[in-house]
Amino acid sequence: EEQEEDVLRELRLFLRNVTERLALDRRFKAFTKPVDIEEVPDYLIVIRKPMDLSTLLTNIDEHKYVTVSEFMSDADLIWQNALEYNPDSDPMDRHIRHRACALKDTVRAIIRDELDEDFDRVCEEIKESR
Ligand SMILES: CC(=O)c1csc(NC(=O)C2C[NH2+]C2)n1
Protein backbone atom coordinates (compact mmCIF):
# COMPACT_ATOMS: atom_id res chain seq x y z
CA GLU A 1 0.00 0.00 0.00
CA GLU A 2 0.99 3.70 0.05
CA GLN A 3 2.98 3.40 3.29
CA GLU A 4 5.03 0.59 1.72
CA GLU A 5 5.86 2.79 -1.27
CA ASP A 6 6.89 5.55 1.14
CA VAL A 7 9.31 3.13 2.84
CA LEU A 8 10.79 1.94 -0.48
CA ARG A 9 11.19 5.56 -1.65
CA GLU A 10 13.15 6.27 1.54
CA LEU A 11 15.25 3.13 0.92
CA ARG A 12 16.10 4.38 -2.59
CA LEU A 13 17.10 7.80 -1.22
CA PHE A 14 19.40 6.12 1.34
CA LEU A 15 20.97 3.76 -1.24
CA ARG A 16 21.50 6.60 -3.76
CA ASN A 17 23.20 8.70 -1.06
CA VAL A 18 25.53 5.84 -0.09
CA THR A 19 26.35 5.00 -3.72
CA GLU A 20 27.00 8.64 -4.72
CA ARG A 21 29.36 9.13 -1.76
CA LEU A 22 31.32 6.04 -2.85
CA ALA A 23 31.46 7.30 -6.46
CA LEU A 24 32.93 10.62 -5.25
CA ASP A 25 35.77 8.87 -3.37
CA ARG A 26 38.90 9.01 -5.53
CA ARG A 27 40.07 5.61 -4.20
CA PHE A 28 37.11 4.00 -5.98
CA LYS A 29 37.56 5.60 -9.42
CA ALA A 30 38.18 2.20 -11.07
CA PHE A 31 34.81 1.00 -9.75
CA THR A 32 32.64 3.90 -10.99
CA LYS A 33 31.91 2.60 -14.51
CA PRO A 34 31.63 -0.85 -16.18
CA VAL A 35 35.03 -2.27 -17.22
CA ASP A 36 35.58 -1.31 -20.89
CA ILE A 37 35.58 -4.63 -22.77
CA GLU A 38 37.52 -3.02 -25.65
CA GLU A 39 40.36 -2.17 -23.23
CA VAL A 40 40.09 -5.40 -21.18
CA PRO A 41 38.84 -8.06 -23.64
CA ASP A 42 39.30 -11.05 -21.29
CA TYR A 43 37.32 -9.44 -18.46
CA LEU A 44 33.96 -11.11 -19.24
CA ILE A 45 35.67 -14.53 -19.54
CA VAL A 46 36.93 -14.25 -15.93
CA ILE A 47 34.09 -12.21 -14.36
CA ARG A 48 30.59 -13.65 -14.87
CA LYS A 49 28.64 -10.91 -13.10
CA PRO A 50 30.26 -7.49 -13.67
CA MET A 51 29.10 -4.70 -11.37
CA ASP A 52 30.05 -1.05 -10.82
CA LEU A 53 28.79 2.02 -8.96
CA SER A 54 26.97 3.55 -11.96
CA THR A 55 25.09 0.27 -12.51
CA LEU A 56 24.12 0.24 -8.81
CA LEU A 57 22.57 3.70 -9.29
CA THR A 58 20.66 2.52 -12.38
CA ASN A 59 19.40 -0.53 -10.48
CA ILE A 60 18.23 1.70 -7.59
CA ASP A 61 16.30 3.94 -10.02
CA GLU A 62 14.75 0.87 -11.62
CA HIS A 63 13.44 -0.21 -8.20
CA LYS A 64 15.57 -3.40 -8.27
CA TYR A 65 16.22 -3.33 -4.50
CA VAL A 66 13.52 -3.80 -1.82
CA THR A 67 16.07 -4.42 0.97
CA VAL A 68 19.57 -3.22 1.85
CA SER A 69 20.69 -6.85 1.75
CA GLU A 70 19.78 -7.13 -1.96
CA PHE A 71 21.76 -3.91 -2.62
CA MET A 72 24.72 -5.25 -0.60
CA SER A 73 24.82 -8.43 -2.72
CA ASP A 74 25.41 -6.32 -5.85
CA ALA A 75 27.73 -3.86 -4.07
CA ASP A 76 29.84 -6.80 -2.85
CA LEU A 77 30.23 -8.00 -6.47
CA ILE A 78 32.27 -4.87 -7.22
CA TRP A 79 35.10 -5.63 -4.80
CA GLN A 80 34.78 -9.43 -5.10
CA ASN A 81 35.20 -9.17 -8.89
CA ALA A 82 38.23 -6.91 -8.45
CA LEU A 83 39.93 -9.39 -6.08
CA GLU A 84 39.21 -12.23 -8.53
CA TYR A 85 40.41 -10.35 -11.63
CA ASN A 86 43.55 -9.02 -9.95
CA PRO A 87 45.08 -11.95 -8.05
CA ASP A 88 48.76 -11.46 -8.91
CA SER A 89 51.63 -10.10 -6.82
CA ASP A 90 52.44 -7.31 -9.29
CA PRO A 91 52.02 -3.79 -7.90
CA MET A 92 49.04 -2.88 -10.10
CA ASP A 93 47.07 -5.94 -8.90
CA ARG A 94 47.99 -5.24 -5.27
CA HIS A 95 46.95 -1.60 -5.66
CA ILE A 96 43.47 -2.42 -6.97
CA ARG A 97 43.03 -5.19 -4.35
CA HIS A 98 43.84 -2.64 -1.63
CA ARG A 99 41.16 -0.35 -3.06
CA ALA A 100 38.69 -3.25 -3.36
CA CYS A 101 39.20 -4.05 0.33
CA ALA A 102 38.76 -0.35 1.19
CA LEU A 103 35.46 -0.37 -0.74
CA LYS A 104 34.29 -3.48 1.16
CA ASP A 105 35.14 -1.93 4.53
CA THR A 106 33.68 1.49 3.64
CA VAL A 107 30.30 0.10 2.51
CA ARG A 108 30.02 -2.00 5.67
CA ALA A 109 30.96 0.91 7.92
CA ILE A 110 28.38 3.24 6.32
CA ILE A 111 25.62 0.61 6.64
CA ARG A 112 26.59 -0.18 10.26
CA ASP A 113 26.64 3.53 11.18
CA GLU A 114 23.69 4.85 9.17
CA LEU A 115 21.11 2.12 8.55
CA ASP A 116 18.43 2.02 11.24
CA GLU A 117 17.75 -1.62 12.08
CA ASP A 118 14.02 -1.04 12.53
CA PHE A 119 13.84 0.56 9.06
CA ASP A 120 15.76 -2.40 7.61
CA ARG A 121 13.35 -4.82 9.29
CA VAL A 122 10.35 -3.03 7.71
CA CYS A 123 11.97 -3.41 4.27
CA GLU A 124 12.59 -7.11 4.92
CA GLU A 125 8.92 -7.53 5.95
CA ILE A 126 7.79 -5.88 2.70
CA LYS A 127 10.04 -8.24 0.75
CA GLU A 128 8.61 -11.33 2.56
CA SER A 129 5.05 -10.12 1.88
CA ARG A 130 5.58 -9.97 -1.90
C1 LIG B 1 37.65 -2.84 -12.10
C2 LIG B 1 38.81 -3.78 -12.04
O1 LIG B 1 38.83 -4.74 -11.25
C3 LIG B 1 39.95 -3.57 -12.92
C4 LIG B 1 40.01 -2.61 -13.89
S1 LIG B 1 41.52 -2.74 -14.65
C5 LIG B 1 42.00 -4.02 -13.65
N1 LIG B 1 43.23 -4.69 -13.70
C6 LIG B 1 44.23 -4.35 -14.62
O2 LIG B 1 44.10 -3.45 -15.40
C7 LIG B 1 45.51 -5.10 -14.64
C8 LIG B 1 46.36 -5.12 -13.40
N2 LIG B 1 46.47 -6.61 -13.55
C9 LIG B 1 45.38 -6.61 -14.57
N3 LIG B 1 41.06 -4.36 -12.77
Description:
- Helix 1 (2-24) packs antiparallel against helix 3 and helix 4 (68-85) runs antiparallel to helix 5 (91-114).
- The chain starts with a helix and ends with a helix.
- The protein is mostly helical and 130 residues long.
- The mean pLDDT is 98.
- It is built from 6 helices and no strands.
- It has helices at residues 2-24, 43-46, 53-61, 68-85, 91-114, 117-128.
- The chain binds ligand 5U9.
Secondary structure blueprint with pairings:
Layout: H1 2-24, H2 43-46, H3 53-61, H4 68-85, H5 91-114, H6 117-128
Helix pairs in contact: 1-3, 1-6, 4-5
Q: Give the proportion of residues in helices.
A: 55-70%
User: What ions, cofactors and ligands are bound?
Assistant: ligand 5U9
Overall mean pLDDT: 98
Separation, N- and C-terminal Cα atoms: 12 Å
Reported for the largest beta sheet, the result is:
none
Any idea what the radius of gyration is? Answer: 16 Å
Order of helices and strands: HHHHHH
Q: What would you call the shape?
A: elongated
- Per DSSP E runs of 2 or more residues, the count of β-strands stands at 0
Beta-strand proportion:
under 5%
What multimeric state do the chains show? single chain
Low-confidence stretches: none
Summarize this entry quickly:
This protein is mostly helical.
Could you list some keywords that capture this structure?
130 residues, mainly alpha, elongated, binds the ligand CC(=O)c1csc(NC(=O)C2C[NH2+]C2)n1
